[in-house]
Design goal:
54 residues; mainly alpha
């Protein structure tokens, strides 16, 4: 009976540690500021010419 309780307690501790670490990682990921590189305009791009002609 004591071994069962010990295994249960260790399992609960492991689950709590994994939960806390995953919550911290997810929180840090949502705080990351994503940036978008500016697009490089190609002077030979035909679609750009059509846009300026309109």
């Amino acid at each position: 009976m004591i071994k069962l309780v010990t295994v249960l307690i260790i399992s609960i501790i492991i689950v709590l540690v994994v939960l806390i670490v995953s919550l911290k990682v997810t929180s840090k990921a949502y705080q990351y500021k994503h940036t978008i590189d500016p697009s490089v305009e190609d002077p030979n791009d035909a679609s750009q010419e059509r846009k300026t002609d309109v």
